Amino acid sequence: MKANFMTAAEAVKLIKSYDKVYIQGSTSIPEVLLDALTARGHELKGVEMYSAFAVGRRDAPYAVTELRDSFIPRSLFIANCLRKAIDRGEAQAIPGFLGQIPSFFREGIIPLDVTLLNVSLPNEEGYCSFGISADLAVSAVECSKIIIAQVNKQMPFSYGDAVIHISRFDACVEVDDPLVTLPIAQPNEKEQKIGRYIAEQIPDGATLQIGVGGIPNAVLDALYDHKDLGLHTEAMTDGVVPLIQKGIINNSKKVIMPHKSVASLALGSDRLYKYMDKNPDIIVKDVAWTNDPFIIRQNPKVMAINSAIEVDLTGQICADSIGTRMFSGVGGQHDFMYGGWLSEGGKTFIAMTAASNKGISKIKPVLTSGAGVVTTRAQAQYIVTEYGIAFLKGKDLAQRARALINIAEPSAREELEKAACERFGYRFLHTR
Fold first, then answer.
1. Does the pLDDT of residue 101 top 80, yes or no?
2. Burial category of 69 from C-beta neighbours within 10 Å (exposed 0-12, middle 13-18, buried 19 and up)
3. Is there a contact between 9 and 39 (Cβ–Cβ < 8 Å)?
4. For the domain 8-175, what is the CATH code?
5. End-to-end CA distance of the chain
6. How do the domains of the chain map onto residue ranges?
7. What's the confidence (pLDDT) of residue 1?
8. Cβ contacts of residue 306 below 8 Å, gap of 6+?
9. Cα gap 90→97, rounded to integer Å
10. How far apart are CA 167 and CA 170, in angstroms?
């Protein structure tokens, strides 16, 4: 079979009213296809648009008030391009552990009609790569009736699950569209302290799961004296590249895919994307596999490092909402917190500055009304701020409260003490 090339306007005519459409994510949103589909909005009704972790260079063009009856946006992980539409009530979020969301497609809970992809140029055998976004795209392609791809000169070719023959596409659109790039977050002084606290807990031979932003970069910056680290993560970022190039991350101690760095998506700079291109030492996999806790646990000394919006005095962790306002999603936090907990020698960290940018304590007597629990207090292990580490595993509630108050914003500690006294009484007063 040959590739079926056409214009974007022609390609999106395959989409009908009331279809369910999945949009590839990470920093590889197929913008050309979305613009063409949005231009058809006046012809369509009730098209359900599904997306997950996706960093756009702008708000989603289809998620606008004038097209709210044409398109129904549903986010499986709220990112910047849909946040305003969700705040307006014109888009909705679907909760789910990221590693389990592919089962929504595979079990027909969300029966997909169309997947929109952004893929690399084909290789000599005619295979294209999803490049930097296998995550949910692998299962979406598997379950869709129609696959439409923009074949993009700027998409790197990565190996693993994210490879598909060009003949599988019902329509191809040739594009030369730059991927979204993210600036490398430079850790501030507080984040550097947090990074050092966590790095001190990471042994040689550990397998890392690490996220995006100042604190993860601070952790990576503090690992240059370590040896034989591995990478099995959800998101690959620029910060891991120097550690791989120096042989500090060499994946030699991993049980699952030894000698390979594994991720389900990537986001960062052009440098990262070029480093990934045709690099056989980097494998990009279906998120149902990378985030399976029973796959994760097979690696030794898994170090899962995640963040939170707020934590209460018992160790309940909110990471997806600000009160009732949905802000992001469950993502892979639970997947790796559980897998890391089960791993032999594994440790799990929730890392955050003690207070928000507005000076509000992130450690609270109780979670804000309406806030969601992403990781339960039964799974909380290490909570880290710039004031130190609270180790909660095996601790009773009064002990947890004491440990968390010790790393809280100093101006909030008196209020937290009072709340803990009222809640836990005599035993808290006699807990050091």
1. yes
2. exposed
3. yes
4. 3.40.1080.10
5. 71
6. 8-175, 189-429
7. 54
8. 211, 319, 333, 336, 337, 348, 349, 350, 351, 375
9. 23
10. 8
Q: For residue 194, what are the CA distances in angstroms to 41, 280, 318, 350?
A: 47, 33, 19, 10
The CATH number of 189-429, from 3.40.1080.20, 3.40.50.300, 3.20.20.220, 3.30.160.40, is 3.40.1080.20
177 in Cβ contact with 31 (< 8 Å): yes
Residue 245: pLDDT over 90: yes
Closest among 51, 24, 28 to 268, alpha carbons compared: 28
pLDDT digits (tens, 9 = 90+) for 307-347: 999 999 999 999 999 999 988 889 999 999 999 999 999 99
**How does pLDDT run across 160-202, given as a tens digit for each residue?**
998 999 999 999 999 999 999 988 888 999 999 999 999 999 9
Active-site option among 31, 234, 386, 409? 234
pLDDT score for 110: 98
Q: Is the pLDDT of residue 113 over 70?
A: yes
Q: What is the per-residue pLDDT across 1-27, written as a single tens digit (0 to 9) for each?
A: 577 999 999 999 999 999 999 999 999
User: Same CATH topology for 8-175 and 189-429?
Assistant: yes
Tokens of 140: 């979406």
Helix (H) or strand (E) holding 347: strand 347-351
Quote the pTM value. Answer: 0.95
| CB-based burial label for 371 (10 Å; 0-12, 13-18, 19+) | buried
Which residues contact residue 292 at a Cβ distance below 8 angstroms, ignoring those fewer than 6 apart? 99, 335, 339
Residue 368: CB atoms within 10 Å: 16
Strands 114-119 and 146-152: parallel
Q: What is the DSSP string of 164-213?
A: EEGGG-SEEEEE--PPP--PPPPP-HHHHHHHHHHHHHPPTT-EEEE-SS
**Amino acid found at 74:** R
Note the pLDDT of residue 294: 97
129-156 CB burial, b ≥16 within 10 A, e <16: bbbbbbbbbbbbbebbebbbbbbbebbb
425 vs 407, 410, 420, 421, CA distance in Å?
A: 21, 22, 7, 5
Spatial separation of the C-alpha atoms in residues 194 and 198, rounded to whole Å: 6
Cβ atoms of 194 and 385 within 8 Å: the answer is yes
| CA atoms of 90 and 85, how far apart (whole Å) | 5
What pLDDT is stored for residue 185 in this prediction? 82
Catalytic residue list contains 386: no
**Mean pLDDT score of the chain:** 95
Q: pLDDT band at 293, cuts 50/70/90?
A: very high
